[in-house]
Write a structure and sequence with these properties.
globular; single chain; TIM Barrel; binds NADP nicotinamide-adenine-dinucleotide phosphate; 13% strand; alpha/beta
Length: 281
């Protein structure tokens, strides 16, 4: 497993398990399966309402806490709420979080970011992340951030590479984590002839070729899956390497089209969406 060093020296695995849209029982099982299969990173969020189950899966796996990289995200409705970080610690049943993000550029995101900075200084989190920030809001965040973000999590896949945002953050050494690394399972992306050809050449699946491309361009991937065969395969991408020409050919598939487009109104509405974190099993 390749690891990437963050700008503060913390090591982040290049492959983790995503848990978006997983009901708690499914998330608990998938986390357990992934850790047993050698994963050492898990990605969750307040908004997924499965943090408690993720914590249970981690505990049940028996893998020592200091070998696991746990990432979660504050939902905008808690950005101004005291104790939002402690709530994550409680739900995940852990003393510290490896990477905590603010999930959306919505509401008072500067207050949310300040909570992350305070938690970082207090040793409650080991790295600070932002998610879904672009353009003006990214610039605003950077202008106000005392500690520049160690990680940005963005939609990224061969149809939407978002190289521009990565380039903008180079001066801070901010690393990228790709969400929807497999296009949320889109068959058109997975079945691109270019991937089928490379899959045949390397004896891998199309999904593995895509994930290898991400990691080789320096991006961590967090593919979501509840299928143990897929979970296993998605981390089995370290016994081959794409050539520079193959990397460049995949880069050319970029259409600059996202699967998920929040309108400014939808994005603003996130801050008003209250979630009951205590309701989850
Ligand atoms: N920050 C944000 O705003 C944000 C937004 C969205 C997602 N995320 C994070 O990013 C993670 C990844 O996103 P995602 O799970 O929605 O999309 P994804 O990882 O791109 O794709 C997941 C889909 O691909 C399928 N799949 C997984 N491995 C496969 C394989 N080897 N071969 C064929 N199909 C495969 C899965 O089905 P099976 O279960 O059948 O394998 C699932 O339907 C999330 O889980 C979440 O942690 C963050």
């Amino acid at each position: 497993m390749i690891e990437f060093a963050l700008s503060n020296g913390v090591k982040m695995p290049s492959v983790g398990l995503g848990t978006f849209l997983m009901q708690p029982d499914k998330a608990e099982q998938a986390v357990y399966d992934a850790l047993k299969l050698g994963y050492r990173m898990v990605d969750t969020a307040n908004g997924y309402l499965n943090e408690r189950a993720v914590g249970r899966g981690i505990k049940k796996s028996g893998v020592p806490r200091d070998e696991i990289f746990i990432a979660t995200k504050l939902w905008p409705s808690v950005y101004e709420q005291d104790g939002a970080v402690d709530k994550c610690l409680e739900l995940l049943d852990t003393d510290y979080i490896d990477l905590l993000y603010i999930h959306q550029p919505s509401g008072n995101y500067l207050a949310g970011y300040k909570q992350l900075e305070d938690a970082y200084k207090a040793g409650k989190i080991k790295a600070i992340g932002i998610s879904n920030f672009h353009d003006e809001k990214l610039e605003d965040l950077l202008a106000h951030a005392e500690i520049k973000p160690h990680v940005i999590q963005l939609e990224s896949h061969p149809y939407y590479t978002d190289t521009g945002t990565m380039d903008r953050l180079k001066e801070y050494g901010t690393r990228m984590v790709a969400w929807y690394p497999l296009g949320h399972g889109d068959k058109a992306l997975l079945n691109e002839p270019a991937f089928t050809e490379l899959a045949q050449k390397y004896g891998k699946s199309n999904a593995q070729i895509i994930l290898r491309w991400h990691v080789q361009r320096g991006t961590t991937v967090i593919p979501g899956s509840t299928n143990p065969d897929h979970i296993k395969a998605n981390a089995d991408i370290f016994d081959f390497a794409l050539t520079a020409d193959e990397m460049a050919a995949i880069e050319k598939l970029n259409k600059n089209v996202r699967y998920y487009n929040a309108t400014p109104e939808q994005e603003a509405a996130y801050a008003g969406m209250k979630i009951d974190l205590d309701a989850q099993p």
